[in-house]
Amino acid sequence: MTCRIRSGRARRWGARATSGCLAVCFVACALLGASTSQSAEAPARRPWEGQYRIRPDEKHRLTEADVVGPDGLVYPDWTYAGVPGGIPDVAVRARPADFGAEADDDRDDSGAIQRAVEAAGAQGGGAVLLGSGTFYLDRPVIVGHDGVVIRGEGADKTRLIFRYAMPPAGVTFYRRRPGDVVYSDTWIQLHAVPEDLMALEVRVDGKTVSRRERSKHWGNTFSISTSGRSLLGKAGDGPHQMTGIAEYRDGTKKETSEEVRLSKQASPRPDPRPRMLGAIAFAGPGRVGSRIPLAADAPRGSRLIELQSAGGLEPGDRIAIEAPASDRWNALVRNACKWGTYRRYRLMIEAVDGDTIRVNQPLRLAFPVADGSYVQKMEVIRRSGVENLYLEQTENLWINGIAFSNAWECWARGVTVRKAGRHACYAVAAKWCEIRDSVFDDAWFKGGGGTAYVGWEHACDCLMENVTTYKMRHAPCVQWSASGNVIRKSTFHESDGQWHSGWTNENLFEQCTIDSQRGHGGYGYGMWASPPEDTAHGPNGPRNVVYGCDVRSSRAGVWMGGMNEGWLILYSRFQVARGPGVFAKTASFDHVIRGNVFALSDPGEPAVRLATPDCLGVELIDNRVYGGSGQLVSGPGEPELERDNHVLPATDAPPLPKAPVPSIFEWQRENCARRR
Q1: 8 Å CB contact between 434 and 413
Q2: How confident is the model at residue 270 (pLDDT cuts 50, 70, 90)?
Q3: Which end of the chain is less packed: N or C, by CB atoms within 10 Å?
Q4: Which pLDDT tens digit goes with each residue over 480-521?
């Protein structure tokens, strides 16, 4: 049967398909002046005036951050995603064999590979070419130079076996060499056996420098970080004793001590300091200098940012812009998570005019002065990557397989990672990076606390394509202010798709196959977005998009926890064993759910459940529902528009929907002028 349109409240969009991109002058963001009042006596109100559900003919509302698609829907702009110009073919500049590496000899090759990396970096970049055979890494390899690529001869020919383990004493200072001077900027890590670990502590001359105790999100923690500057805060220049202590559940302690010479000077050759350690880790310096407050609100869609002072900033500088989670904002979005980063974006300065900077692309979110928004300069690693090799970890230590931090225009291509300690391949504080043509199979630790993910964190405009994963917890995954990222043409076995935390926005999951199961730490939903009452994750932000995906799940196909504005769930198939096709609650509003197929095995469930009355403005168009309760929608929330939906008998072979174009990402690249 065809479900009726609720014509009394229906608001129809223009049905005519519009092609091309519309880039017009930006408009002031309604959120900047939004009230924080969402009172109990008026539950059926949007928490703020919506700004992302725009009709193509509303030209006064369209900004440079918006693209009118071939179906008449207004989308985010994903033409920025991925390495600008594509992944380059980098010439070979070094071979680990020239530095002592030898395949298949069971000896540690990490030093030789590290020396080859440094040699390539000293030449201004280049590929480090590993030959065929098996190479062994007894410690991580860290890349801190631009343009350095670690390359094998193929995942079936070049194998890296990562064997880093704790010494017999069970505790050690990482990468310390006898006689090393500890400078003010020296990076120090203490590592210990993780099983039943309760606390880690670093001392100098008996004084505590840093201490970390087991907490809710401890996971498989085995390390604590500090710096020479922190040691110098407790002791002056000269020789001292540095001690590391690991405390365990049964009350035992393990200790290590060494003599160090402290110096207040900066290191003449500072080590790269990865935010996340990996068997292969790419690490840029990160944010430098002071925070520069905004002098005026920066609206969504703007390229101009007015600062209190632009002194010291120049064209070509890379910056982060952030709106902290103020009391005002937390109240507005009902955020119960009092830590984390929610509204942060990474940009490049194109021009400086007085105290106003022009950046390379429009803002996806508003950055209000009222919340203490600021910019800060960044130093990053650029155009480095890893290619064409197999990597396997042998020890249950919480170390990633391949990790990128403070990385721009970097990539992993043609790699297989087997049994990573934490994340198989992961990027933090990244921009314009790519993960493609790769396989990620299993992880040692999947007991919670941020582990076994494949995706993007604090990352902007990155691309994942043609990736296959097995036995992860959350894959694909975006979290903590991740925005503008594209994950497409990939298959995820035994994991769930996640907008995991921290106001992720304008990310695209496209042409992905997800088979969600609960045996490896996933939640069982096909896709899940954290709710505002979640004290560990907080809510997710506006206009995330699901396009042309094929999802099978034991629980709801899409579960949206609330405060989600203007999401687009389009042309996808959801086969759900228990629960509805889409579940939404707590001011999850202004969504378009169009052209999907829902195959529901639970006879008590509808295609869409609007679980609270404040799930307003939802449009249900041209969906097909097979089985379930025979209802299109249920719950106290009511859709604004129902049109051309059909509820049909259950079937074992629900058809895949047909999208107006197979790929909205490729359509944008073909029809929109590249803007970077």
Answers
A1: yes
A2: confident
A3: N
A4: 999 999 999 999 999 999 999 999 999 999 999 999 999 999
Q: Taking the CA of residue 249 as centre, how many other CA atoms within 13 Å lie in the half-sphere pointing to its CB?
A: 6
pLDDT for the residue numbered 473? 97
Given a contact cutoff of 8 angstroms between Cβ atoms, the answer to whether 112 and 101 are in contact is: yes
Q: Are 458 and 482 in contact (CB under 8 A)?
A: yes
pLDDT digits (tens, 9 = 90+) for 238-259: 999 999 999 999 999 999 999 9
pTM: 0.93
User: Where in 369-424 does DSSP place strands (E)?
Assistant: 374-379, 381-382, 385-393, 400-408, 411-420
Strand 619-621 and strand 641-643: the pairing is parallel
User: Which residue's structure tokens are 């085995």?
Assistant: 222
Q: Which CATH superfamily is domain 176-268 in?
A: Immunoglobulins (2.60.40.10)
Architecture of domain 75-86+385-671: 3 Solenoid (2.160)
3-state secondary structure at position 344 = strand
554 contacts 639 by C-beta, under 8 angstroms:
no
Residue extents of the structural domains in the chain: 75-86+385-671, 176-268
- Enter the DSSP assignment of 657: P
Structure tokens at 396: 């249950």
Closest CA to 460 of 477, 475, 478, 440: 478
**Neighbouring C-beta atoms of residue 45, cutoff 10 Å:** 15
